[in-house]
Each structure stands twice: as structure tokens, then as C-alpha cells.
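WARN no homologs supplied; continuing
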Amino acid sequence: MTAIAVPTTPRRIATTVRVHLSNPWALLYMPALITLGVFALNFTVWHIVLFAAGDDPLEPDAFDYNGGGSWVMFYAVVVAVQAMNQTFSFTVGLGSTRRDYYLGTSLIFVMLSVTFGVGLALLAGVERLTDGWGVGGRFFAPSVLQTVPVWELAAIYTLAMMLLMFVGAACGASFVRWAATGLIAFLGSLLVLAVAIVFLIVWGGWWQPIVDFFAARTPWEIALLSLPITIVAGLGGFALLRRATPKG
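OK structure emitted
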């Protein structure tokens, strides 16, 4: 029996986008609120430390190193899995092909990446203008990112979000296709692959050259290096989704 290829249409892609946007709470509001909550917690800790220090001066870079702002990026994996699990069967049931669904979903993930990337960069700009929220804190642009221009920060954060969104898309496709068992197997495979790569690096004596390579690169150059991984993750997600069966 010969399969008939159904051409991609903007209408079906737009339908997928609308289905995703029908639940902005999970896609946008929840990650934003929790990120602001993590920031509020850090802001409180900074003031507690300053109060405890009293008249004793702190190190100039006491609040420079903070990974709290990256929370929303890693949460992007969860957002992607949830979004695909909640919308795949319904959208395909409306007549969208798997290809159209994945293209529409990818468009949503890119839009979210740009939104959060620009948002984090703008907050980093405010952070600088207020001298670290009045206490020298660095939450939205910590450590090596302190002096990076805001426009460049937006691009870096967008690329980082896209990487994790499409890793999440591959995870979401695994979940849609094989449920929790498939997702666990997929994550386990990624873990085994990561351990194998680290082992080969250590065994081959390549650790220091790799460290030197990244140390010689700017944050923007390192962010650009994530693009091939993002593309592979995106293509892998589509390959996994092609044979997924919608659930009633």
C-alpha cells in the first residue's frame, strides 16, 4: 500500500500554534512567575547577608556568581514535554499532519525562546542600571556575562533556550510515542552517551585542550556552537514523532 504525502499548509501550522497558545499559563506565565520567585528569594538572601555582615565590608564580587537566572532555561525542557503531551493527540485529531504539528510546535518553541531570551536580557539591563538592584547582586547576568552587551545577552539566552527547548522536543516526542517508559529510556540513553563522551575525553587526554578551547571563546561564540546540537535535537524529535500514535 502506497502512502500519500500530504503537503504542508500554513493553515494547519497556524492551528497548531493556536492550540499551544490556548494554554499560556503553562507555556509563559508559570515559567515567568517561578523565575521571578527565584529572583525574589535571592534578593531576600542578599539583604539577609548584608544585614548579618553589618559594618563589615563584603567582597566586591560577593553576589556576582548566581545560577538562579538559568532556572527558566532548564525548565524549558519540562515546558516542551508538557506542551507536546497535552496538544499532540488533540491537534492531529483536528486534521493536522505530524509534520505540520511539529513545524507549528517548533515555531512556538522558537517564539518562546526569543521571548524569554529578550526578557532576561532586558532584566539584566535593568540590573546594571540599578547597580545590582541596589545591593550589587547579579542574577540575570552573573559572572562572565556581566559586561556582555544587552543585545548580545538576548542572542545568547535565545540560543540557550532554543537548545533546551528542542532537547525537550525530543524528550516530548519520546513521551508521546512510548509514554513514560520511552521518556525514561530516552533520558537514560542521553545519560549513557554523556558518560561515554566524558570517559573518551578523559581517556584520550583531551580534557585540557577542550577547556582551553572554550576558555579562548567569548560567550557569544560558545552560544553559536550550540546551534548544531539544537538542529540535531530538532530533527531527532521529528524522527521520533513521525510514527507516534494519537491517544484518544
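DSSP finds nine helices and no strands in the chain.
OK
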